[in-house]
């Protein structure tokens, strides 16, 4: 068994779990994999290999070896990070943000805890944005309409309030800024360690077009090599 090991200042938290592959930077799929929060999973794509373990050595270094079913070791060249839950998380729960901004627009809405519960339910059951194709001109309009449906469902009857349009517009703008998010403390250090070791590092996310501005605000953009979003490909992971 070959063991993957990563460390950035001796720290790599559970959020950085292995989940898939992409050969987007002109790198063969056999030399790329990506991180997403949660757990070790079998990589996506035409590979005949399986992830075995993730450990953190005490030294601040990055080393990667991946076991293959045939027992041969293969060098990897690219790492792709997911965004939410991997590099960053919300600065506060949605219910608190929704409630505060709703009040500023005179919209009477449920309590923050109820808004949180509704948000989880709506997001968990709603189909993803349907794009017209890779790089479609109306991608941002489709994303905006999708989020308006989500927020409207979360607010329920309050979505018919005259102030809802302004409330939604402010919410949409707010979540497109870095201030709405918090960068996980190990993120930049881990990316920097990978870059020093000669890796190509990108972000692969199902987030909407606002992520580009968010990552710039959080100073991730200048540390990575590329960003791949559904607006670019026309599909949602894991398609």
Task: Write a brief structural summary.
The protein is an alpha/beta fold.
Notes on the protein architecture:
The protein has 239 residues and is α/β, with parallel strands linked by helices. A 5-stranded mixed beta sheet has the order 2-3-6-9-10. A 3-stranded mixed beta sheet has the order 4-1-5. A two-stranded antiparallel sheet has the order 7-8. The two termini are 30 Å apart. The longest helix is centred in the middle third of the chain and has 17 residues. The N terminus is likely disordered. The chain is built from 7 helices and 10 strands. Helix 1 crosses helix 2. Strand 9, helix 6 and strand 10 form a beta-alpha-beta unit.
Please render the helix and strand layout as text.
Layout: E1 4-6, E2 17-20, E3 32-36, E4 54-55, E5 62-63, E6 78-81, E7 88-90, H1 94-104, H2 112-125, H3 139-155, H4 164-174, E8 181-183, H5 187-196, E9 200-204, H6 211-217, E10 226-228, H7 230-233
Parallel strand pairs: 1-4, 3-6, 6-9, 9-10
Antiparallel strand pairs: 1-5, 2-3, 7-8
Descriptive terms for the model:
five-stranded mixed sheet, three-stranded mixed sheet, 239 residues, alpha/beta
The proportion of residues forming helix, as a percent range, comes to: 25-40%
Gyration radius over CA: 20 Å
Strand % is 5-15%
Q: How large is the count of helical segments?
A: 7
Q: Please count the beta strands (DSSP E, at least 2 residues each).
A: 10
Low-confidence stretches: 1-73
The end-to-end distance, rounded to whole angstroms, is: 30 Å
Q: Major sheet: order of its strands?
A: 2-3-6-9-10
Biggest pleated sheet? 5 strands, mixed
| Class computed from helices, strands and strand pairing | alpha/beta
Order of helices and strands: EEEEEEEHHHHEHEHEH
From the spread of the alpha carbons, the general shape counts as: globular
Average pLDDT taken over every residue: 74
